[in-house]
Amino acid sequence: MMTPSPYCTIGPFFPSQFSEGTADLTRHDGRVAQGQHIVLTGRVLELGGKPTVNTIVEIWQPDANGIFRHPLDSRGAQGDPGFFGWGRARTDAEGRYRFRTVLPGANEGRCAHLNLMLLAIGLTRRLTTTVFFSDQPREVRDPVLECVHDTAARLRLFALRDGAVDAEAALGYRFDILLRGENETPFFLD
Amino acid sequence: MIPMKTAVQPQIRKTYDSYDDGTQMARQIERYPLSFTRVPSQPLIERPLTLSELTGPMGIEERLGVEKLDLSRGAAGGRAIGQLISVAGRVTDEDGSPVAGAVVEIWQANSSGKYIHELDRFEAPLDPHFMGQGRLITDSEGRYEFLTVKPGAYPVMESGWWWRPPHIHFSIFGPSWMNRYVTQIFFPGEPLNQVDLLLNGVRDEEARQCLIFEARTPAMGSVKMLPFERDFVLRGKHATPELL
């Protein structure tokens, strides 16, 4: 067995070109993704509520039917050809990020959610968390959500309906992330 | 209260072992101030791995372009100033099996230590012939290779004393969300390596060497570039991912 290579921070100069055109997941291969389109926005803040600039936010999620475009998913071949499932955004001077994507369906045994990771100067390794949706049905006990025992912290894993609906009638959700401080966002061990 | 079903999860063979924390970079590093305002104060929470964490973007080259990479040649065709080098290596999993088709993003400073980035305030010149960034994909044996110039050292402007040793940034898309990997690779024999806060943030000496290129002796008759190599080991044993 070999030891996994050590991670290191992305530093302050992650190229902006690497984030161009990557924050809209609703189009792929010339097709429009099926399901409810959403706009997921939020701010990434550090200790004291200060915004972080040029933080890279990446998401990975199933399509509107809860299918991952991946050979490990037994339904993978039936995945939406108009949806790839991965996206990247970067934060601006106010710490804001913005994705257009679809409301994920629930994969077997899980509640509707998407995976989110952060890369930034000051973070020597990536940070990972899971985003749930406050107004979506929870038909099972989600095994990842159940690991967060602090009730208040658990609530911080829910994106809230934002009210805002954009020109193409996508629903708005807001998910703010506090890296450190009172009310910080829960993160998971990889 | 509506009673909830207990989650029925497909059982997934454990393909991700935990690792010795000393072989990874410390999360908080003394005199690296941002690690004290950004790293969560609460312990990271253990979670089971479900399909969601064990899958990940595959075929991402469909979304992000990849190319045969030569950072030493600008759009106009001229060569960048600096020591021309080739960088090559292999991406594998923990079993040593090649990770074929991994997309690798690369970015670095030019030979003066200047990045092509609006946030870089260092008063060193940009080089119109230097690309600074690019993407490639590993071949069927997990191999990658690109040409570039050796990056220069540069000061961390906020600290006033910390000079970063020459290094190249790598961001790799492995086959799952668990092995999305980013790092910096340093050059052997650089005096600044001895005092770099990040490089020395890896406690384990052997693991620290995994962040430094190996200088290869140029073959006799080879007059093009100085060769450097670095292999990467991604988390997990991917050759046999299976659902039980």
Gyration radius of chain A, in Å: 16 Å
Give the helix level of chain A as a range of percent: under 10%
* Biggest interface, chains and residue tallies: A-B, 80 and 83 residues
Low-confidence stretches of chain A: none
Average of per-residue pLDDT values of chain A: 95
- Pairing-aware structural class of the strands and helices of chain B? mainly beta
Helix fraction of chain B by DSSP (H/I, runs of at least 4): under 10%
Structural class of chain A: mainly beta
Q: What percent of residues of chain A are in strands?
A: 25-35%
Q: Helix and strand succession of chain B?
A: HHEEEEEEEEHEEE
Outline type of chain A: globular
Q: Outline of chain B, from the CA principal axes?
A: globular
Number of strands of chain A: 12
Q: How is this fold's topology laid out?
A:
The complex is a heterodimer of chains A (190) and B (244).
Chain A: E1 27-28, E2 31-32, E3 37-46, E4 50-51, E5 56-60, E6 86-90, E7 96-102, E8 113-119, E9 127-133, H1 151-155, E10 158-165, E11 171-174, E12 177-178
Parallel strand pairs in A: 3-11, 3-12, 9-10
Antiparallel strand pairs in A: 1-2, 3-4, 3-7, 5-6, 5-8, 8-9, 10-11
Chain B: H1 34-38, H2 51-54, E1 84-92, E2 103-108, E3 133-137, E4 143-149, E5 154-155, E6 163-164, E7 167-173, E8 180-186, H3 205-209, E9 214-215, E10 226-229, E11 232-233
Parallel strand pairs in B: 1-10, 1-11
Antiparallel strand pairs in B: 1-4, 2-3, 2-7, 5-6, 7-8, 9-10
Distinctive features:
heterodimer; A: 190 residues; ten-stranded mixed beta sheet; two-stranded antiparallel sheet; 12 strands; 32% strand; B: 244 residues; mainly beta; 3 helices; 6% helix; 22% strand
Verbal overview:
The complex is a heterodimer of chains A (190) and B (244). With 190 residues, chain A is an all-beta fold. Helix content of chain A is 3%, strand content 32%. In chain A, the strands form two sheets. In chain A, strands 3, 4, 5, 6, 7, 8, 9, 10, 11 and 12 form a ten-stranded mixed sheet that branches. Chain A has a two-stranded antiparallel ribbon with strand order 1-2. In chain B, 6% of the residues lie in helices and 22% in strands. Chain B contains three helices and eleven strands, in the order ααββββββββαβββ. Chain B has helices at 34-38, 51-54, 205-209; strands at residues 84-92, 103-108, 133-137, 143-149, 154-155, 163-164, 167-173, 180-186, 214-215, 226-229, 232-233. In chain B, the strands form three sheets. In chain B, strands 1, 4, 9, 10 and 11 form a five-stranded mixed sheet that branches. In chain B, a hairpin with a 6-residue loop joins β7 and β8 (180-186). Chain B is globular, with a radius of gyration of 20 Å. Chains A and B meet through β8 and β9 of A and α1, α2, β8, α3 and β11 of B.
